[in-house]
Design a protein that fits this description.
The complex is a heterodimer.
Chain A: E1 3-8, H1 14-38, H2 43-52, H3 58-83, H4 91-108, H5 117-143, H6 147-167, H7 202-219, H8 221-231, H9 233-238, H10 243-270, H11 281-291, H12 296-320, H13 326-341, H14 343-346, E2 347-352, H15 357-360
Antiparallel strand pairs in A: 1-2
Helix pairs in contact in A: 1-2, 1-13, 2-12, 3-7, 3-8, 3-10, 3-11, 3-12, 4-5, 4-6, 4-10, 4-11, 5-6, 5-10, 7-8, 7-10, 7-12, 11-12, 11-13, 12-13
Chain B: H1 2-31, H2 39-57, H3 60-84, H4 89-107, H5 133-138, H6 142-160, H7 162-172, H8 174-179, H9 184-210, H10 222-232, H11 237-259, H12 266-285, H13 288-294
The chains are: A mainly alpha, B mainly alpha.
Chain lengths: ~350, ~300
């Protein structure tokens, strides 16, 4: 009987590293085909609605990039930490905190017509995200507390704080008692980039973060140290790379980017504070960081794919009466397939034949 | 006053029970050296599968069994990816949670406003009528007794049986276990599946007993709290039990305070369980030596016989 065995490779395969995100994406499409047919829809039409239609018009293309921006921002920030095995999974909470901090500035300076309101919102928002990420960083470096659990718990706390504010102190007095803040003033809103779309200049912040992330990880000493700390923790501490500095950099980078993404949402498509300011961008960013191979360029493309999954989910809900939660299902499937096919980076398949009489003799 | 205290005690046990199931299961998984962060996803899938099967079959117990099967099925995905395909356990666990959240929302969509007859507390004739002791001993839901039995079984299994010893050996030193002929991967598969079934059971308890209904994300972070509990408990089953009831009590504070007419927005009290988790985790992990001594030595590290 033949057996198939996994054998460690001498060198990790770069080819397999590039291939596995593509394989994972194709696998998601195939699963989509099966799922759509099981639900009694024409699978090819459903695929068209899900993956092609969201890019048909200029407006739709704008939506695609608009939704990709916050995911891209969060994922670039997270990837810096992940490279060093700093597992910040609370980007969603840091995004909410950024939205609260930046939105607070917008509300406080509602009557100001200074053009510095918007920049101030982003600075304060980034600080808000960083402050929220500093809690797990502090507890990890001081008390050795697992940052995964702390950063995740803080997501719940952040969304409750936001709910508290929009139900209470920051509620619009003229808003018919709806839990929402005043609409932001013109000076607190991001200018539209392409007429006829909702795409705004927030895109440039995301692209700048991608570029900065690339410069930091590939060209700076601190970035190099982060990568070493991730690949060989023992060697890193032997070489004098401070592990608490690694944790702080990883966490704060994630927090700052997520905070910026939060401001981008409330100063962009939302335009005010609502009880919910993100449909899970901070969690989608975890998937994007991995699918993008923790590399800024990969993250750029992966966030467009993720944005397409969100839009496809909305389109499927509208035109096919499919539940929009299919998006979450596809997101999870994508990451699981990616991790599974990643096995070929470090291992190869070897077909083992048991010794026959001839070879044994 | 006495009545009030007894009610509070009963409610605390009821609120802690889903955590008992999920955290005990995760404890066994971690004892084998595998860190499965997918508890939240497995609980949700367990909850929705249990609810669907219970409503369509009209048999809550079939639902409980289905919930366990659902949790185990999801954990099988994790086991294949991490144990056979050597993927990073942290990333795969996160993926499993995200996948489970999406999957449960997807398959549960048609059941959101369905009402179900919950599993009732045991009513052995006359027994709960005995003052004080009667209710405390006999007034619980059958699944609460099941969780206590599970605790006793795991305690006994880990400390008194040969198989329990093998499981711990695999978690402490997979290489040595492999060298003496133990199949590390097989043991880990079983431990992961057991953890998945327990998480599914915890989910089933939520959707069939605790708040008999299905809602997207109805576990509201209990899976993550269960993970924290295992650390808090220093990988000791009796401390898992104590911790689960402690957190059960904290979640109750919300309703208690509202009942007593405390004028505080509900959000403050809703934050309590999460903040308590963080505080408790921080205090426990301060003592790195204790954690190091009790945590399974190979926790989270992949195993391949050839390195």
């Amino acid at each position: 009987m033949m057996r198939i065995r996994l054998e460690p490779r001498a060198e990790p395969s770069r080819f397999a590293g590039w291939l596995s995100p593509m394989v994972a994406a194709v696998a998601v499409v195939l699963i989509g085909l099966v799922l759509f047919s099981l639900m009694g829809r024409n699978p090819w039409h459903a695929l068209y609605v899900f993956f092609i239609e969201p890019m048909n018009t200029l407006y739709d293309a704008g939506e695609l990039v608009l939704k990709a921006s916050p995911i891209m921002l969060c994922a670039v920030g997270l990837s810096i930490g992940y490279r060093a095995n700093v597992w910040n999974i609370g980007a969603e909470g840091q995004l909410i905190m950024g939205a609260i901090a930046g939105g607070g500035v917008a509300l406080a300076f509602h009557d100001s017509d200074s053009r510095w309101v918007l920049p101030a919102m982003f600075v304060v928002g980034a600080a808000g995200g960083m402050a929220w990420a500093a809690i797990p960083a502090f507890l990890r470096t001081r008390c050795n507390t697992n940052e995964i659990l702390v950063s995740l718990m803080l997501v719940y706390v952040a969304s409750l704080i936001l709910s508290l504010l929009v139900h209470g102190a920051w509620r619009d007095p003229e808003g018919f008692n709806f839990p929402q803040s005043k609409m932001f003033a013109e000076t607190a809103l991001l200018p539209i980039l392409v007429a006829g779309t909702r795409l705004n200049v927030g895109l440039f912040i995301a692209l700048a973060a991608v570029a900065a992330g690339w410069l930091f990880m590939q060209r700076s000493l601190a970035g190099f140290q982060m990568r070493v700390a991730g690949l060989a923790p023992a060697a890193a501490s032997y070489a004098g790379i401070s592990s608490s500095r690694t944790v702080w950099i990883g966490m704060l980078a994630g927090g700052a980017c997520a905070g910026l993404a939060g401001v981008g949402e409330v100063a962009g498509p939302i335009g005010q504070l609502l009880p919910v300011v993100s449909p899970g961008y901070g969690f989608a960013a975890i998937i994007v960081a991995f699918v993008g191979r923790l590399h800024p360029v990969g993250i750029f493309f992966a966030s467009l794919l993720m944005s397409l999954l969100y839009l496809g989910g909305e389109a499927a809900q509208m035109h096919l009466a499919l539940p929009s939660s299919v998006t979450g299902l596809f997101q999870g499937t994508l990451l699981l397939f990616l991790l599974a096919t990643d096995v070929f980076i470090r291992f190869r398949l070897r077909i083992v034949r048991p010794p026959t009489a001839a070879t044994a003799a | 006053m006495m009545d009030h205290a007894i009610t509070l005690l009963l409610l605390t046990l009821a609120a802690g029970t889903p955590l008992v199931f999920a955290a005990l299961g995760e404890l066994v998984t971690e004892k084998s050296g595998v860190l499965n962060l997918g508890v939240e996803g497995m609980m949700l899938v367990g909850a929705v599968v249990a609810f669907i099967v219970a409503t369509t079959s009209q048999s809550p117990w079939l639902g409980v069994a289905a919930g366990m099967a659902g949790g185990a099925a999801l954990s099988l995905v994790f086991a294949i990816v991490t144990l056979s395909l050597h993927a990073n356990q942290v990333a795969s666990g996160l993926a499993l949670s995200l996948f489970g959240i999406g999957l449960s929302a997807f398959i549960g969509l048609d059941y959101v406003s369905v009402i179900i007859e919950p599993i009732r507390p045991l009513t052995v004739h006359g027994l709960p009528d005995i003052p004080v002791v009667g209710v405390l001993l006999f007034g619980h839901n059958p699944l609460v007794y099941l969780s206590l039995a599970l605790f006793a079984a795991i305690q006994w299994f880990l400390s008194r049986t040969r198989a329990g010893l093998v499981l711990r050996a695999v978690g402490e030193s997979p290489q040595s276990a492999h060298a003496i002929g133990i199949s590390v991967v097989r043991i880990r598969y079983l431990a992961v599946l057991f953890g998945g079934a327990c998480a599914g059971l915890g989910g089933a308890y939520l959707s069939l007993v605790y708040s008999p209904s299905w809602a997207e994300g109805m576990t509201s972070g209990r899976g993550w709290i269960a993970l924290a509990l295992v650390v808090f408990a220093n990988w000791k089953p009796w401390r898992v039990l104590a911790g689960a009831y402690l957190f059960g009590g904290v979640t109750l504070a919300q309703f208690q305070a509202q009942g007593m007419g405390v004028e505080l927005p509900s959000q403050y009290l809703a934050m309590l369980p999460y903040i308590a988790t963080i505080v408790v985790l921080a205090i426990i992990s301060r003592n790195a030596a204790v954690i190091k001594q009790n945590a399974p030595a190979s926790l989270g590290r992949p195993f391949h016989p050839e390195g």
